[in-house]
């Protein structure tokens, strides 16, 4: 009688311990009841290694009720053949209770968990790491690890199966690669088809009179646009060549007339007159004046990076501005260009 009472007390204590373990309730020495905090375990890189360690920990951490056989122990580890059947069940959706219409759709295309979204984050699997559970449900590896840390126990987020196993699953990555390949092929085929179609539209003459008229109209429009663009380019090139020849002829005539005028009056030619300029004194006067802006464009003269011209009357200008001013003066039929500031004849050199 005492042994029977002792056995009943042991079984009652074992069941009470099992229930408290399931509810994660911890009774300290002080008698206060508190919820046991789940142990946060570091996530291993490979699910197979993590599952082996978890199985050993479960067997070592069995409750007294499980050791006495009062409560079923966790299931044994699945074999490779069983894992293959689990993966096939995830692809085909076997063992799922559905309505008649849903069952027809399922038999037509299968469950295909890897082709759908992750049930935790509701995002596509893409090329991210995914795991399959022993209950044939598929999730992101990171999402399932976060769910386990939050729940504090191994329970499937969909079917609530406890003490499951998990393995790496590659179907999601393969499906994503297939989708990307199909999209690339579709883009290329569309480009090739449009290219062939446009070539046929531009080369094949329609048999319908109205469409033939539109065809020749578009053809002549393209030819006219191409001809006008070629003429514009040639005209711009011819104008540039004409201006360049005019500038060269004008410079040559200025040199000839300047030399003859200097020799006729007993003076010195243009070159000697340039040599007589005391450029050091001219530069000193320009520095003393300290001009900051160009008198032609009214912009800053700038630093050494901008080309500047110093005239014999000690004025500073941008080289491009003075060149444009000289071309304008020659176009206005002026024999000699005068300084824009003091209106005197000048010689120039780069500053």
From TrEMBL:
<dbReference type="InterPro" id="IPR042862">
    <property type="entry name" value="RNF32"/>
</dbReference>
<dbReference type="InterPro" id="IPR001841">
    <property type="entry name" value="Znf_RING"/>
</dbReference>
<dbReference type="Pfam" id="PF17123">
    <property type="entry name" value="zf-RING_11"/>
</dbReference>
<keyword id="KW-0479">Metal-binding</keyword>
<dbReference type="InterPro" id="IPR013083">
    <property type="entry name" value="Znf_RING/FYVE/PHD"/>
</dbReference>
<dbReference type="Pfam" id="PF13639">
    <property type="entry name" value="zf-RING_2"/>
</dbReference>
<keyword id="KW-0862">Zinc</keyword>
<feature type="domain" description="RING-type">
    <location>
        <begin position="118"/>
        <end position="160"/>
    </location>
</feature>
<keyword id="KW-0863">Zinc-finger</keyword>
<protein>
    <recommendedName>
        <fullName>RING-type domain-containing protein</fullName>
    </recommendedName>
</protein>
<feature type="domain" description="RING-type">
    <location>
        <begin position="294"/>
        <end position="343"/>
    </location>
</feature>
<dbReference type="GO" id="GO:0008270">
    <property type="term" value="F:zinc ion binding"/>
</dbReference>
């Amino acid at each position: 009688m005492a042994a029977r009472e002792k056995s009943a007390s042991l079984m009652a204590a074992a069941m009470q311990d099992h229930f408290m373990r399931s509810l994660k309730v911890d009774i300290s020495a002080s008698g206060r009841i508190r919820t046991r905090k789940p142990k946060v375990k570091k996530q291993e890189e490979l699910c197979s290694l993590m599952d082996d360690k978890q199985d050993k920990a479960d067997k070592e951490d069995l409750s007294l009720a499980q050791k006495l056989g009062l409560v079923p122990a966790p299931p044994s580890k699945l074999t490779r053949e069983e894992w293959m059947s689990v993966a096939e069940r995830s692809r085909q959706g076997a063992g799922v209770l559905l309505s008649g219409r849903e069952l027809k759709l399922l038999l037509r295309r299968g469950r295909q968990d890897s082709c759908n979204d992750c049930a935790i984050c509701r995002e596509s699997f893409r090329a991210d790491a995914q795991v399959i559970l022993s209950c044939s449900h598929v999730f992101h590896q990171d999402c399932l690890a976060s769910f386990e840390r939050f729940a504090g126990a191994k329970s499937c987020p969909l079917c609530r199966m406890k003490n499951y196993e998990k393995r790496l699953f590659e179907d999601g990555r393969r499906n994503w690669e297939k989708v990307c390949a199909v999209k690339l092929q579709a883009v290329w085929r569309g480009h090739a088809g449009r290219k062939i179609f446009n070539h046929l539209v531009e080369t094949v003459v329609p048999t319908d009179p109205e469409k033939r008229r539109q065809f020749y109209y578009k053809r002549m429009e393209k030819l006219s646009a191409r001809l006008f663009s070629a003429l514009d380019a040639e005209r711009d090139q011819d104008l540039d060549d004409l201006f360049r020849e005019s500038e060269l002829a004008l410079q040559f005539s200025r040199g000839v007339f300047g030399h003859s005028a200097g020799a006729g009056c007993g003076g010195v030619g243009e070159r000697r007159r340039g040599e007589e300029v005391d450029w050091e004194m001219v530069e000193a006067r320009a520095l003393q004046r300290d001009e900051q802006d160009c008198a032609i464009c009214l912009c800053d003269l700038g630093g050494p990076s901008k080309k500047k011209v110093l005239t014999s009357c000690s004025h500073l200008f941008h080289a491009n501005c003075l060149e444009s001013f000289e071309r304008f003066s020659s176009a206005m039929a002026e024999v000699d260009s005068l300084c824009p500031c003091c209106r005197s004849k000048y010689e120039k050199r780069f500053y």
